[in-house]
Amino acid sequence: MNSGSRSLFWHSDGRRLSGFTTLLLLSPFFAIIAFVFVYPIGQLLYISFFEPRPTLDNYARVVTNPVYARVLVRTVWTAVLVTGLCVVLGFPVAYYMSRARGAVAALVGVCVILPLWSSVLVRTAAWSFLFQREGLVNSGLMAVGLTSEPLKLLYTQSAVVIAMAHVLLPFMILPIYGALRSIPNDYMRAAAVLGATRFRTFIEVILPLSLPGIASGSLLVFLTALGFFITPALLGSPQELMIATLVSQQIREVLDWPFASALVGVLTLFVTLLALIFSKTLRFDRLMGAQQ
Questions:
Q1: Is the peptide bond before 66 cis (omega within 30 degrees of 0)?
Q2: N or C terminus: which one in the chain shows less Cβ crowding within 10 Å?
Q3: Positive or negative: CA dihedral 54, 55, 56, 58
C-alpha cells in the first residue's frame, strides 16, 4: 500500500482510521436508516401535507378537534406515568445489581434481560389473564379480604400503565445500572470518612451521579411509550385510546391516510423536539451514563 492510499484510509498517526474510512464503514448503517425510517416518514409527511391537495387541514383537525387533542394528551400522560413507575421500580433493582457480585449479580442480570427475549404480545396477553375478573389479581385481593367482589382491572388506564411499565422496565434498569457501576467506590469511602451516613451518601453522592442514567432511561422509556400499540390495544378501552391505536384505526378502518399521516407528523415533531432538548441539556456520553 503506497503512502497516498494509506493517508486516505488511516489518520496521520497511522493508528486511527481516517474520516473517509469511518464514513465508509458506517454507510451500510446510514443506508438502512434511510430506507426503513427516513423514507417512510418522509412519505407520510408528504401525504399529510399534499394529499389530496396542498393543505394544512389535517394538522388543524389534530389540534382543534377536542377528541383528537384528548388522545394526544392521554398518550403523553400515559407515557409520563409509565416513565415514573419505571424509575420507581427500576432504580432499586439497578442499585442492587451494581452492588451485587458473583452468582447473585448474574442471576439478577438474567432476570432483567430475560423478558426481552419474549414477545411483547405474549407478555401483554399474560397481563390480560392476570387482570380479568376471575384472574389471579382479583382472586388474591378477595382471598386476603381487601375486596368483596372482583374489581374492574382489565380495559383501564391502570392496566395499560402497569403492563407497559413491565415491558419497558429493562430499558430503565440498564442505563441506571451503567451509571451506578461507573461511580468509583472511593467516593462512598470518602463520604464515610467525612462522617456521612449511608442515607446522606446516597442523597448527596450516589443519586446525583446516577442522574445521567436516570435521564437516558427516562428518555428511552418515554419515547417508546409514546408509540406503544399492542399493549394499549389489548388492555385499554375505547375510552382510553392512545395515538398509535388511533393511527391504526384511521388507516385500517377509516382509510384516511392523510389524517393518519398528520398524526404521525405531530408525534414525530414532538419526539424530535424532546430529543433535541435532552441533547442540549446533557451531552451524549453523559446521557448514556458515562462519567467524566
A1: no
A2: C
A3: negative
Q: Tally DSSP H helices, then E strands, for the chain.
A: 16, 0
274: cell is 424532546
* Per-residue CA distances from 140 to 55, 123, 137, 157 (Å): 55, 20, 5, 21
Same domain, 128 and 79: yes
- Same domain for 45 and 74: no
Rounded-to-integer distance, Cα 26 and Cα 18, Å: 12
Which one, of 232, 275, 198, 259, lies nearest residue 61 by Cα? 259
C-alpha cell at 212: 445521567
Confirm whether 145 is domain-assigned: yes
How far apart CA 178 and CA 288 sit, in angstroms, is 8
CA distance 254 to 289: 44
Pair 179, 232 in one domain: yes
Full residue range of the structural domain in which residue 224 is found: 66-287
- Per the model's pLDDT, the better-predicted residue between 72 and 8 turns out to be 72
d(CA 47, CA 52): 8
Question: Do 147 and 182 fall into the same domain?
Answer: yes
C-alpha cell at 269: 415533531
| φ, ψ for residue 213, nearest 5 deg | -65, -40
Of the candidates 289, 120, 60, 17, the one whose C-alpha atom is nearest the C-alpha of residue 6 is 17
- Separation CA 199–CA 10 (nearest Å): 51
Q: Which amino acid is at 23?
A: L
| Spatial contact of 271 and 58, defined as CB atoms under 8 Å apart | no
- Please state the pTM of the whole predicted model: 0.83
**Cα dist. 78→71, 97, 258 in Å?**
10, 28, 26
Q: What gap in Å lies between CA 141 and CA 155, rounded to an integer? A: 18
Q: All 3 cell numbers of residue 251?
A: 388507516
Can you give the C-alpha Rg of the chain in angstroms? 24
User: How many domains would you assign to the chain?
Assistant: 2
